[in-house]
Design brief:
Elements lengths: L1 H10 L13 H5 L6 H28 L1 H4 L9 H4 L4 H22 L1 H19 L7 H21 L5 H26 L3 H4 L8 H18 L1
Helix pairs in contact: 3-6, 3-7, 3-8, 6-7, 7-8, 8-9, 9-11
């Protein structure tokens, strides 16, 4: 039982949930960080978003199980290695999705819409968008942007246009960086793991990284 719980915990990728801390960005830049009510509301929203992203990771691992087995790191994940069964992973996906969206609705309607938009985007990415060149990078970046919007909508604050430009540029930088890392790690197996990687080259992704990093710095 302990081993099962540990494997299930690993399936939700606890390190990846740190990305959800960007929900606090609007709280920090709106000057409300030290106010108790919006602070604890954002903490609550981060927890809700973590449940949502964890559920989606379970579905994504089920859909990518054959490709993950070719990856030197991902093949060790509980679902790809068979330590967590596919029915168990799907149950975690359904339960986590319904629970998180319900809790999001209890926060406010607009935060719920942001969570729902993120959910739809990630499902679309897992099924279709990740197979389309460039669109896959935009979809990854969109996930980061929706996190920031969710935080702003939860505490009802206006985001400065320069702050939004900074967030968008930084999101694109991280998305391009993800593809560059995959290309570097997989090398000859890149095409077998993800077909879109055949259309990316290290110089092209390096150019993307340079452009997005500079635009993020200038916007900031």
């Amino acid at each position: 039982m302990v081993q099962f719980s540990l494997n299930l915990f690993r399936s939700i990728r606890p390190r990846q949930t740190l990305k959800n801390l960007v929900l606090a960005a609007p709280l920090v830049f709106s000057g409300k960080l030290l106010l108790a009510e919006p602070f604890w509301l954002i903490v609550r929203c981060i927890i809700i978003f973590t449940i949502l992203t964890s559920a989606i990771y379970c579905l994504n691992d089920v859909l990518d199980i054959s490709r993950d087995k070719l990856h030197p790191v991902k093949r060790k994940r509980p679902i790809a290695s068979g330590k967590i069964s596919i029915p168990t992973a799907l149950f975690a996906f359904v339960a986590g999705s319904f629970a998180s969206l319900y809790l999001a609705y209890l926060v406010n309607f607009f935060f719920f819409l942001a969570c729902l938009a993120y959910f739809i985007l990630q499902i679309s990415y897992s099924l279709v968008l990740k197979k389309i060149v460039v669109i896959d990078i935009l979809a990854i970046a969109g996930g980061f942007i929706l996190r920031v919007y969710a935080g702003a909508l939860a505490i009802n604050v206006h985001m400065n246009v320069w702050f939004l430009l900074c967030v968008i540029s930084l999101s694109l930088f991280l998305a391009a960086g993800k593809r560059r890392t995959e290309l570097a790690i997989l090398e000859q197996k890149a095409a077998r793991h993800r077909k879109t990687l055949t259309h990316y080259s290290p110089p092209l992704l390096d150019s993307y990284l340079s452009i997005f990093a500079n635009s993020a710095w200038m916007a900031y």
